[in-house]
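STRUCTURE:
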């Protein structure tokens, strides 16, 4: 039996390639709304960031996340993402 291939994705902030499951996916849906995609299955344009505060700060400050999604990020999405990253780094 062939070993299962692990999908790899690149963080928009630090540009490191990691397994897809280790990253957070943010999606711009076909309707133009921006959502955090917990399952990684939503349709639309996706961008990935590491689950670290450093990558979050860099992605937001440098507007790399906005550039990758080609949209202005709403404040509530940035806030949700911040809470998710903070929670990951406290428990993880």
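SEQUENCE:
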């Amino acid at each position: 039996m062939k070993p299962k291939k692990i999908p790899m994705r690149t963080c928009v902030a630090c540009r490191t390639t990691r397994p897809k499951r280790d990253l957070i996916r943010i999606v711009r849906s076909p309707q133009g709304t921006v959502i955090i995609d917990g399952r990684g299955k939503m349709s639309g344009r996706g961008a990935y960031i590491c689950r670290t505060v450093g990558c979050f700060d860099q992605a937001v400050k440098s507007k790399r996340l906005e550039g990758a999604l080609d949209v202005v990020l709403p404040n509530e999405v940035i806030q949700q993402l911040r809470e998710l990253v903070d929670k990951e780094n406290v428990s993880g």
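REMARK: DSSP finds three helices and five strands in the chain.
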